Amino acid sequence: xxxxxxxxxxxxxxxxxxxxxxxxxxxxxxxxxxxxxxxxxxxxxxxxxxxxxxxxxxxxxxxxxxxxxxxxxxxxxxxxxxxxxxxxxxxxxxxxxxxxxxxxxxxxxxxxxxxxxxxxxxxxxxxxxxxxxxxxxxxxxxxxxxxxxxxxxxxxxxxxxxxxxxxxxxxxxxxxxxxxxxxxxxxxxxxxxxxxxxxxxxxxxxxxxxxxxxxxxxxxxxxxxxxxxxxxxxxxxxxxxxxxxxxxxxxxxxxxxxxxxxxxxxxxxxxxxxxxxxxxxxxxxxxxxxxxxxxxxxxxxxxxxxxxxxxxxxxxxxxxxxxxxxxxxxxxxxxxxxxxxxxxxxxxxxxxxxxxxxxxxxxxxxxxxxxxxxxxxxxxxxxxxxxxxxxxxxxxxxxxxxxxxxxxxxxxxxxxxxxxxxxxxxxxxxxxxxxxxxxxxxxxxxxxxxxxxxxxxxxxxxxxxxxxxxxxxxxxxxxxxxxxxxxxxxxxxxxxxxxxxxxxxxxxxxxxxxxxxxxxxxxxxxxxxxxxxxxxxxxxxxxxxxxxxxxxxxxxxxxxxxxxxxxxxxxxxxxxxxxxxxx
Length: 583
What we know:
Elements lengths: L2 H11 L21 E3 L6 E3 H6 L15 H8 L6 E2 L18 H12 L5 E8 L2 E8 L10 H17 L3 E7 L7 H21 L3 E10 H4 L8 E4 L5 E2 L3 H8 L10 H6 L5 E2 L2 H16 L24 H8 L7 H8 E7 L11 E8 L2 E8 L5 H6 L7 H17 L3 E7 L6 H5 L2 H13 L5 E10 H5 L6 E5 L3 E3 L3 H9 L5 H8 L3 H7 L4 E3 L7 H21 L2 H13 L5 H12 L1
Parallel strand pairs: 5-6, 6-7, 7-8, 7-9, 8-10, 13-14, 14-15, 15-16, 15-17, 16-18
Antiparallel strand pairs: 1-2, 3-4, 4-5, 11-12, 12-13
Helix pairs in contact: 1-3, 5-6, 12-21, 14-16, 18-19
């Protein structure tokens, strides 16, 4: 072990409580007589308070830079930290020189930072969950991605692969290291390739974006992880703001490339203050990388007997299904799931508020939950686009489904939508394509899928979440090819005929159970408390998951295929088809 690495290990394992987080990482943070001057608001803060706050200003919330050793201490359980050795050859492949020869610049960076390179890798635990952490340090040549950093990240990925342990990448970088030329560029491909191997092995990866993260790091391993968490205010992008401003020839938007703006554009899943990052990571590790447990035996509230269901006027059911105040997807997630973490964005430019996706534990069973979100009040309903997902919403759902498939987690979908969002923007952004892609994706998901229609199930917008092994329905919900009003306007030429159209469409639970479109019906929500409705839904999902989890994936896929293959086939046609299949 090199002397530099020994010093880093000692720093990590024996932190000095008098040394504030962020020490020596930028102007304004050097302690003077035990006080820190916040570089954001200029407030004087006692150094111990600054340290206890992990380098976050208690007045303005500014997150100051944190060194890699300090980051490792903040994230990992203290007794679990094991620093991984890092071989750092003194290499100068280009014999590069600007105002200083590259080897001299490296030696100066090592002396100034106490780091062997711009990365520190460690093995440990977060709230008891085994994990590998690779933390970048911006003090070392701007956290630039060179051959040594790329090799260390790749080797850490390989250890994660060998040990089947989740990986957390803490990113802080100005981009690829110019002094190593195109060899630094190649590290983008090298690290991306290493992450692909973790994808294929079903190993959870999480990146933590800190300020700043730019260039080759942002365009490779930082954005290829399953979940992207960012600290508030962290700057994140490919090209730097000065380059972009020079290119566009004008000022940039307020907050450009900050975590908050990037989050709104669907590139980041979670913005987590530094003091909460460990908790956020622990919840993700618990839900996405823990031991998978079979559903416990529960009393199943579902009935599959259509004759035993009461007959109701269909229009009354329609009005009940649309009633404001019914439990939403977020209500069900928060009431039923432990360690629930919502993920955001389609990673293509948007985050649809009408679609909710996340990971959590239903009892002892980790699941991925996906659902339309109508809102709890009139204002929220409008903010949630009336529960009508845009193409970005369906792409976000598809991303969550692929994550479930990678991690081997069952998918639970909650359907309550009038349909997919209409409009010029939705059409130009590929609404039809997004729905079609979800239908195909769900038909081939290798994990169990349970869909529950809890309110209004409108057209293809609802079906895009309901190509499932088991489709359940609440007794006062509806599921239809078109709204009764739309059907009445087209066929009756009078929207006032909507009640008559609703009867003709047979969109109530009893009718759909008779038609075989749904597999079971839960008791109506009615005026029951949300807790009671959620408990019934949770019990129904667990009961449906038990036999599905016991099946081989190939058998489950054949069963799912047969379920949808039979619709629209008469008994005689079905016999002929099966006879033809045998021949």
